[in-house]
Amino acid sequence: MDKSFEPSQIESKWYAHWEANGYFKPSGKGTPYTIMLPPPNVTGTLHMGHAFQHTIMDTLVRYHRMRGFDTLWQLGTDHAGIATEMVVTRQLNAEGRQRADLDRDAFISRVWEWKKESGGTIGRQMRRMGVSGDWSREVFTMDEGPSKAVVETFVRLHEEGLIYRGQKLVNWDPVLKTAISDLEVVSEEEDGSLWSIRYPLADGTGELVVATTRPETMLGDVAVAVHPEDERYAHLIGRMLALPLSNRQIPIIADDYVEKEFGTGCVKITPAHDFNDYAIGQRHGLPMINILTDDAKINDAAPEKYRGMDRYVARKAVLADLEEAGLLVETKKHKLQVPRGDRTGEIIEPYLTWQWFVKMDTLAARGLELVEQGHVRFVPENWINTYRHWLGNIQDWCISRQLTWGHQIPAWYTDSGEIVVARSEAEAKAQAAAQGYNGALRRDADVLETWFSSALWSHSTLGWPDPQAQAERGFDRYLPTNVLVTGFDIIFFWVARMIMMTDHFTGEVPFKDVYVTGLIRDKDGQKMSKSKGNVLDPLDLIDGIDLDDLLAKRTRGLMQPKMAEKIEKATRKEFADGIPAFGADALRFTFASLATHGRDIKFDLERCGGYKAFVNKLWNASRFVLMNLGDGAVTPMAPATEAERWILTRLGETLATVKEQLALYRFDLVAQALYEFTWNEFCDWFLELSKPALQGSDAQAVASTRYTLVHVLETLLRALHPLVPFVTEEIWQHVRPLLGIDGDTIMLRPYPEASDVTADAAATAEIEWVKDVLTGVRRIRAEMNIAPGKTIPLLLADGDAADRARAEKFAAQIAFLGRVESPAWVGADEPAAAVAVVGGMRVLIPLEGLIDVTAEKARLAKEIARVEGEVRKCEAKLGNANFVANAPAEVVEQERQRIADWTRQADAMREQARKLG
User: Fold this and answer.
1) Known binding-site positions
2) What distance in Å separates the CA atoms of residue 20 and residue 502, rounded to the nearest whole number?
3) Which of 159-163, 183-187, 630-634 has the highest mean pLDDT?
4) How far apart are CA 615 and CA 7, in angstroms?
5) With contact defined as beta carbons under 8 Å apart, do 263 and 334 qualify?
6) Hey, is 302 helix, strand or coil?
7) Would you list the DSSP string of 858-884?
8) Residue 42: pLDDT band by 50, 70, 90 thresholds?
9) CA torsion, points 664, 669, 670, 676, in degrees to nearest 10?
10) Is 836 helix (H, G, I), strand (E, B) or coil?
11) Which of 17, 118, 644, 693 is the most buried (most CB within 10 A)?
12) Does the keyword Transmembrane apply (predicted)?
């Protein structure tokens, strides 16, 4: 093995080897274990959230593959309608061309060119992360198979009366001129105004005053609502108002939606431009008057004066005319939530338009039932509440988009506007002819929103609805899948719809578990965004990047100079030296260690640096083991020393913890257990404890220690492999020949089980005692500033027969590892010494000629204060009647024992302090 670990030299080598040999493909043997990759959008490159989730999925897949499961990790990408169309449109603009310069076919051809480029980038990134999915089965949502599934789903739902075309209110982006989903709307508080306006009674006998933040929409008002129990207006309900600036009259209606105490208690109702007003209009059978065009200008339904004006130009004109007419009562500053499209930043309009919808009531009821009955489980389980909230308040799903890129809706229109839904144009013509129409058909130009095809992902990727494709892709074997790893923000938009659609068409749930991850934020808890200059590229962390390249990358394509300047300033401050190369393994281990069951995950490069040190520690420890083994194979032997039996016991306990926590999706605790064992117990302790045996004269101890070293290392490499695949493969290839192991790769070796390791409680107790003694000696050395290499005397006091037996048994190891003289026991006549307490025994380092007495007295005082604090904590717990009454008896007894132990330590140190004067 090389002296230092160089990730770049081994990562590409081993990934190419794995992929070329087909190790990622399902074996077809064993219990199936399936994960569907949430398909990333083909809009550029992967971000930290992708890398985080891919690490989690790859860990699960590698772990189950090693356990003998027939693993399928289904890979793929999503066509991402709006996002992809915008990227390509910007590319055209940069070339001095417009979207309108290309017809539909030419534009789609251009998008396919971009998809090929972007999809290749995503694939390269995933390979660099070590993703062990089956690339030979990779699927794109616009491929022939998924496209066929989309058409079949649409047609069947339409035949069942679950898909219909209707005129409803939707989120409308006036720049893109399309409906968008709630997920694509970002609402933030902004400064605005609240205008109060007089609405005269039609008969001239009075007026009502209403307040609005959008005065231009009054041109589409159809009523004013009051609360039915508001005594101020009860006598006016049913009367008519003269709508200002319009030659129309509108009624006063009563509705419980109105809050009597808010403002004047009068609310203008504009069903075509407000979602709440739309619901009121539906309840009262009110007309809907849309006053806007698709680019947010006033249309011909409004008074002639305002037609053709932009909505905000019209607002100024409306306010000026109200002021002139004496109908504007007042203007107040007002904070309000403003909805903006996440792609364009434009203010979104609630807009009345014809769209395609899926009826969701029965589908949602079934989707909720499947989760409530436990067919699908959320991890953490509290996310079921989010699922319940969405499905309990569900509206019909708007599935159409006014775009070019995507699955075109399989519907055709006759000259008279009759709709024919079919799987193909030929089938549509046949249906029309059967109904007596033989004229030309016009296909619906709209496409389906991306979530429609994504909702079919679990079964469409397995060949549905084609029986032959299902057989080839293992539909019956791999569905339902085992777990979906996804973010909390798409529980409704994707998770719920997958559950509903997969169940509806296959009778199966798409997955048994939904592991909901947190959101990756920067180290200060801020959301990562380009505008904040805190976005990290996973490949930059793997390969490293200097400051100049990082600056160029972050500011490339930014049109606003001020934003570029802001991002450059933040980048220079945070990454003055650029980003060092951490390697894929260190990045993966960092992600695993952060994978708690919380909502947000703070990513700090310092942690990544710490886990790079961990990978290097494993590398160096492996070199030590190999250098002490020679070139020949090692003969398996039973452990001859307590140190061997101790490390094997701890290995078994670690493996049990890993298995338990992986079943609970606690990747942070898995990483913690493996880190602690690798760094502290194997590297820091067992390698040191092995040295006296390796350098001793006991041939059996030498031989067994050599075997245990390499056996534990090989087992540890297998245990670590799902988290850090590259370094473990490289080391394993050097270790394998020494144990006579057949096989080309660690990834197909069995994952180690705790049951494979024999535990020895007695040996563990012995070695823990040795560790405590050595830890006490080392702490005194450090605190007293005694040189590590200086051999010092060691005295032992108090203790019992077991302590004396252990001191004699491990005298050589203690002397070797602690750089001390063989321990000697002292009685009442002991010298002034620095002390450490091990159970009922004191470890003494004589002071004369070694240490500063004043410093030792200060150290003892500090340690006594710490121990007394621990006593007080335990006493506070035991003084709490609720704790004593409700805690398990063993826990209460544990607290009592802790008080006794802490008190004994404090007494011993007080006695030592007394001896120092």
Assistant:
1) 530
2) 33
3) 159-163
4) 10
5) no
6) coil
7) HHHHHHHHHHHHHHHHHHHHHT-HHHH
8) confident
9) -160
10) strand
11) 644
12) no
pLDDT in tens, 282-315: 999 999 999 999 999 999 999 999 999 999 999 9
Going by C-alpha positions, the residue among 466, 487, 411 that lies closest to residue 53 is 487
Residue 130 backbone zone (phi > 0: left; psi -120 to 50: alpha; other: beta) = left
Put residue 799 in one of left, alpha, beta given phi > 0 → left and psi -120 to 50 → alpha: left
Question: How many Å apart are CA 250 and CA 876, to the nearest integer?
Answer: 70
Kind plus residue range of the DSSP H or E element containing 9? helix 7-20
CB neighbourhood size of 399 (10 A): 23
**304 token code pair:** 């002639």
Residue type, 142: M
3-state helix, strand, coil in the chain (%, to 5): 50, 20, 30
User: Which helix (DSSP H) or strand (DSSP E) does residue 13 occupy?
Assistant: helix 7-20
Please provide residue 798's backbone torsions phi and psi, each rounded to the nearest 5 degrees.
60, -140
Cβ-contact 185, 173 below 8 angstroms: no
Contact yes or no for 711/651 (Cβ under 8 A)? no
The two tokens of residue 186 are 């970002």
- Could you give the residue ranges of the DSSP H alpha helices within 373-508? 384-392, 425-434, 450-454, 457-460, 467-473, 475-478, 497-506
Strands of 567-645 (E only): list them: 600-602
Least confident of 239-243, 258-262, 322-326, 360-364: 258-262
| Mean pLDDT to the nearest integer, 86-97 | 85
- Distance in angstroms (rounded) separating the CA atoms of residues 648 and 708: 8
Burial class, 544, CB count within 10 angstroms (exposed 0-12 / middle 13-18 / buried 19+)? middle
pLDDT at 368 over 90: yes
Binding residues for ATP: 530
- Contact (Cβ atoms closer than 8 angstroms) between residue 468 and residue 462: no
For every residue of 149-218, DSSP letters joined together read HHHHHHHHHHHTT-EEEEEEEEEEETTTTEEE-GGGEEEEEEEEEEEEEEEEBTTSS-EEEEEES-GGGG
Name 521's bridge partners. 527, 602
**Six-digit token string for 915:** 């001896």
pLDDT of amino acid 558: 66
- Which long-range contacts (C-beta less than 8 Å, at least 24 apart) are formed by 203-212? 203/239, 203/240, 206/236, 208/233, 208/236, 208/241, 208/252, 208/264, 208/266, 209/264, 209/266, 209/329, 210/263, 210/264, 210/266, 210/267, 210/268, 211/263, 211/264, 212/268
What digits encode the pLDDT tens for the residues 775-790? Answer: 999 988 887 778 888 8
Q: 195 pairs with which residues across the strands?
A: 212, 331
Do the beta carbons of residue 82 and residue 176 sit within 8 Å?
yes
